[in-house]
Specification:
mainly alpha
Length: 103
């Protein structure tokens, strides 16, 4: 297996593109971890456990056309549509905050 490291990302979109491009590498690493009994001990699992319950669940109404577009675009990037929408919202809030001089 290639000894490719996950790089540092400037934006969530850049990170999403990297994960989508490297799905085979990720799957290979998972299979290797599964075969050696090392799944469940990595950073992703640890962070997921630490963050469990931190994000509140909300309901938001979206136009059907917007939801369909989000699902299509998310699928193209190999993401769940909820993750993709959160990513877009996060980026828009950061951009707007910078525009008005806030963070």
């Amino acid at each position: 297996m290639a000894n490719k490291k996950q790089p540092h990302f400037k934006t969530e979109a850049e990170e999403a593109a990297w994960w989508a491009k490297n799905q085979e590498l990720i799957a290979d690493r998972f299979e290797e971890g599964k075969a050696t009994g090392k799944t469940g001990r990595g950073t992703v699992v640890r962070l997921a456990r630490e963050r469990a319950g931190v994000s509140p669940t909300i309901t938001i109404r979206l136009a059907e056309a917007d939801l369909a577009r989000a699902r299509t675009l998310a699928a193209e990037k190999g993401l769940r549509y909820q993750t993709y929408i959160k990513m877009l919202l996060h980026e828009a809030l950061n951009s707007e905050g910078k525009r008005v001089g806030r963070r």
